[in-house]
């Protein structure tokens, strides 16, 4: 699987727009295996607050405003991103060993689509709460 470019966790995505609306190609090189999924969150909802030892994930906010906090567990460095899926299309890369937390902001629900490099296995979930 190709890794995300160094120092480039957040990357723009082109929206192709016409009178019908828009279309965007979100995951172009990240899909040799794994799983694509989506999630919906109500305003004020917090999701995630966990990390993976093996899995890489890419997320794209399609609707709503979402605050994403990433914490590198080896260095303790924290990064915060505010993504408004209503006005821009971007994807964010979360490497293994990085805690990730999503909060839906404002009065509107959010919808996020994601790709994870390894499908979920309940016998070996590789999902750990942020300490």
Cα distance spanning the termini: 28 Å
* Overall form: globular
Q: Kindly estimate the percentage of residues that lie in beta strands according to DSSP.
A: over 45%
Helix content: under 10%
The SSE string, one letter per element, is EEEEEEEEEEEE
Low-confidence stretches: none
Q: Overall mean pLDDT score?
A: 86
Describe the biggest sheet? 5 strands, antiparallel
Number of helices: 0
Task: Give the strand order of the largest sheet, numbering strands 1, 2, ... along the chain.
Answer: 1-9-6-11-4
Secondary-structure-based class equals: mainly beta
List the defining traits of the structure above.
single chain; 131 residues; mainly beta; 5-stranded antiparallel beta sheet
Q: Your description of this structure?
A:
A five-stranded antiparallel beta sheet has the order 1-9-6-11-4, with no helix packed on it. Strands 8-7-10-5-12 form a five-stranded antiparallel beta sheet, with no helix packed on it. Strands 2-3 form a two-stranded antiparallel ribbon. About 0% of the residues lie in helices and about 50% in strands. A hairpin with a 5-residue loop joins strand 7 and strand 8. The radius of gyration is 15 Å and the shape is globular. The protein has no helices and twelve strands. It has about 130 residues and is an all-beta fold.
